[in-house]
Amino acid sequence: MSISAVLDRPAASTTRPQPAGRVAPAQPAASATPAAPPARPALPAGTSPRGFALYVGIDESKAAEAGVSLGTLVEALRRTLSELAPAAETYATVALAPAGAGGRDVDVVRLALHEPSAVARTKEEPAEEDRAPRGVIVDISRKRVLIDGESAAFTFKEFELLQYLVLREGRTIERTELVSSLWEGTTDDEAPGERTIDVHVRRLRAKLGVYEDIVRTVRGVGYRFDRHADVSIRYGHGTPSPDRF
User: Fold this and answer.
1) Dist CA 183 CA 190 (whole Å)
2) What does the pLDDT look like over 134-184, one tens digit per residue?
3) Which residues contact 117 (CB under 8 A, 6 or more apart)?
4) What confidence category does residue 38 fall into, taking pLDDT thresholds of 50, 70 and 90?
5) Could you tell me the pTM of the whole model?
6) pLDDT tens digits for range 196-226
7) Which of 185, 144, 142 is closest to 162 using CA atoms?
8) What are 46's strand-pairing partners?
9) Is the Cβ–Cβ distance between 204 and 215 less than 8 Å?
10) What string of DSSP letters covers the chain?
11) 172's torsion region: left (phi>0), alpha (psi -120 to 50) or beta?
């Protein structure tokens, strides 16, 4: 279905039937001058719209929580499209990404399906290698942290904690969310208490040294990652951009 077809389609009437005995309020008379058609998006020279791509970010577990499956969603979308535009051709594929890839599902999908702008971003990142070694580099793709050019001895959980905060930059994360997300799949007896998170954060900050304030404490709530000018993040292939929600 082309962009033009969507833009040219007249809007459906929003007039609702009135209950018996009730008089509908008078509507203002329509203007004698017809409204101008909506502006169409500018297209690069020599091109014309031939369809569209819809990236849907959802895994099987989230679909199951909604009472559906990925296959069910695909078929529902196909049925809707066939009703609106019977002549449209469709193609669907499942995006496979590295297990445990953080960030927003839709960003993982875009990168896994080689969406041009998503791929272009990852190709620009090697230039960060040329930066001065001073400061903190959180290398998501290689699961490591460099502090002033030296690799920091983070434990697996300490890195997971920092990564979780980094991918949700600027958002305050409650302790309960950190426990449920970083210790997902453990029983209540095995999962640590909220105070254990404080211990992990203290150790994390101790290893960050003079850069410890990139992990902020929000009193009575939890923790937040604040990026500084001397902090850079590296995202490798298969790793999405920060999760901003």
Assistant:
1) 9
2) 788 888 888 889 998 888 888 888 899 998 998 888 889 898 888 888 877
3) 110
4) low
5) 0.45
6) 888 889 999 999 998 888 898 888 889 998 8
7) 144
8) none
9) yes
10) --HHHHHHSPPPP-PPPPPTT-PPPPPPPPPSSPPPPPPPPP--TT-------------HHHHHHTT--HHHHHHHHHHHHHHH-TT------PPP--TT--S-HHHHHHHHTT-HHHHHHHHHGGGGGGS-S-SEEEETTTTEEEETTEE----HHHHHHHHHHHTTTTPPEEHHHHHHHHTTT--TTTSPPHHHHHHHHHHHHHHHGGGGGGEEEETTTEEEE---TTEEEE--TT-------
11) beta
Say what angle helices 175-182 and 194-208 make with each other, to 10 degrees.
Answer: 90
Count the Cβ atoms, other than its own, within 10 Å of residue 160: 19
Assigned token pair, 191: 């999962």
Residues found in the chain: 245
Contact 145, 162 (CB under 8 A): yes
Give the strand order in the sheet containing 136-139: 150-151, 144-147, 136-139, 231-234
Is the separation of the CB atoms in 220 and 88 below 8 Å? no
Type of residue at 153: A
Residue owning tokens 């009575």: 220
Which of 53-62, 73-82, 157-166, 212-221 shows the lowest per-residue confidence on average (mean pLDDT)? 53-62
Q: Which neighbouring-strand residues pair with 147?
A: 136, 150
More confident site: 42 or 210: 210
